[in-house]
């Protein structure tokens, strides 16, 4: 920061009247008396204020997640995990329909990717990566229930029968279980797509709903053909 020179003055030598032996002295004023320094400080203040305003504005413009965002991510994670499990069970079965195998692989991959994104968002929001309460659906207009009894989830008995099924019977059970699973998932996703606070969760829920609707239509069509 530059110091400002105000002026140079003469100090007469004591005992003289005309100042012929005068010495000069330069008075150095504080930095704020220098016009260039003041302009620099002003510009810096403007830049800092603008930057702070942008950050605050961005923060205020980004909605905080609400109960629907968090509940959907946690409960749908558990819902998706069973879909991946059923798809992998079916893929491992010999003598089943090859076209259904392709669909099962798409479901396993697509929902596994969704699960990863759900975990990432929950971390970003500072929330638990899974529903640790044991109670599901409280974020919806739906009666609370145990997490493992969410609509669309196959029961232990259903899974036992599915694991034992072979051939065309395995095909039929796979379609029946996955259609019921997807229908419930669509109901959850449609609610979140409308009621979640964050655009990220709304977009994810909307995409999930449309994807599962398409898979239901494809599964039913193929089952009717075979």
Structure description:
This protein is mainly alpha-helical and 226 residues long. It folds into 2 domains: 4-61; 67-225, Ferritin, CATH 1.20.1260. Helix content is 64%, strand content 8%. The protein has 6 helices and 4 strands; from the N terminus they run ββαααββααα. It has helices at residues 35-61, 67-91, 98-124, 156-164, 167-195, 199-225, and strands at 4-11, 23-29, 135-136, 145-146. The chain has a two-stranded antiparallel ribbon. It has a two-stranded antiparallel ribbon with strand order 3-4. Helix 3 (98-124) runs antiparallel to helix 6 (199-225). The longest helix has 29 residues, at 167-195. The N and C termini lie far apart (84 Å). Residues 2-16, 18-22 and 49-61 have low confidence and may be disordered.
- How many β-strands, per DSSP? 4
Helix amount, in percent? 55-70%
CATH class of the largest domain: Mainly Alpha
Helix/strand-derived category reads mainly alpha
Mean of all residue-level pLDDT scores: 83
Give the SSE string.
EEHHHEEHHH
The biggest beta sheet reads: 2 strands, antiparallel
Judging by the overall fold, what is the CATH architecture of the largest domain?
Up-down Bundle
Question: For the terminal residues, how far apart are their CA atoms?
Answer: 84 Å
Assembly level: single chain
**If strands are numbered along the chain, what order do they take across the biggest sheet?**
1-2
The DSSP helix count reads 6
Q: How would you describe the shape?
A: elongated
CATH superfamily of the largest domain: Ferritin, core subunit, four-helix bundle
Poorly predicted ranges: 2-16, 18-22, 49-61
As for the number of domains, it is 2
> What is the fold named in CATH at topology level of the largest domain?
Ferritin
